[in-house]
Amino acid sequence: MKYKLIIIILLFTSCSGNYNTFRIDNSYNSKGFAYIYNEKDFLNKIIKKKLDNNSLQIAHNKLRPGSLIRITNIKTNDTIILKNSKRFQYPDFYKIIITKLVADEINLNLKLPLVEIIEVKKNKSFVAKKTKIYKEEENIHSKAPVESVTINNISKKKKAKNIAIKDKLYIIIAEFYSKDSARLLKKRITKELKNFDSKKLYINSRKSNKITLLSGPYNSINLMKNDYIQLKNFGFEELDISINE
After folding, report:
1. Residues 34 and 114 placed together within one structural domain of the fold
2. What is the pLDDT of residues 143-156, one digit of tens each?
3. Is position 137 within any domain?
């Protein structure tokens, strides 16, 4: 279905405009899952290039090599700023590839590797140091909503496992200023996505000035992934993920 332009033009005119990961300051910002580098995946051609697992290395599929990227563990707020080592394609499920050493530096849970990544402009007030964790840098994007994570099939060569997690995950479909707009989109998804469990869709208006259409909760990444793929095929290019909404 080719709803990308139709949905954006006809349905999202009253949205708050949080569908794309590039903010007004043109700094890339997103929240999603980090890919922990594994050389076997390179040998199996799941990823295109190699990283050195003994070094603090990262790779992003959009940002140019040399770009400064701030990576924050969403659960613990541990943060590190590194230069993007390489740019290449990897499974869309992930927002960034990091080595195990980077994951250890920010105390990342490998079963739920949720991170926030922000492109750090060189004119920002702080300086990146590869081996230092920044725990007090809260001034950048502190009021931004949860950013997007694109979720597709990780690999046809790997059998998916529904690993249960304690935290509840939600897909943030859209944010509106009007409940009527949220209801309209919910109705359209329910009507046109026949295999989608409409019981998972609900409207959350608890946050001030935000009326959010969500799907969830999910206690398995793969269960969430299946619904995300349906929504993406419906016409959404980017979706957000929230934890314990």
Report:
1. yes
2. 333 333 333 333 34
3. no
Among the listed residues 3, 30, 22, 21, the one whose alpha carbon sits nearest the alpha carbon of residue 230: 3
Instruction: Let me know if residue 142 belongs to a domain.
Output: no
Verify that 13 and 54 share a domain, yes or no.
no
Summarised one tens digit per residue, pLDDT across range 191-214 is 999 889 999 999 998 766 789 999
Is 236 inside any structural domain? Answer: yes
Domain that holds residue 166: 4-19+158-243
The count of other CB atoms within 10 Å of the CB of residue 142 is 7
Query: Are 91 and 115 within 8 A, CB to CB?
Result: no
Residues 114 and 180 in one domain: no
Inter-residue long-range contacts of 20-24, CB under 8 Å, 24+ positions, other chains counted: 20/148, 20/237, 20/238, 21/147, 21/148, 21/238, 23/141, 23/144
- Check which CATH number belongs to the domain holding 103 and give it: 2.40.40.10
Give per-10-residue mean pLDDT for the chain (245 aa).
41 42 57 89 88 94 93 94 93 88 95 90 51 36 35 40 70 89 94 91 82 91 84 80 77
Question: Rounded to the nearest 5°, which phi and psi values hold at 36?
Answer: -85, 120
* Domain identity same for 10 and 55: no
Report how far residue 141's alpha carbon sits from residue 218's, in angstroms, rounded to the nearest whole number.
Answer: 26
Q: What are phi and psi of 32, to 5 degrees?
A: 180, -160
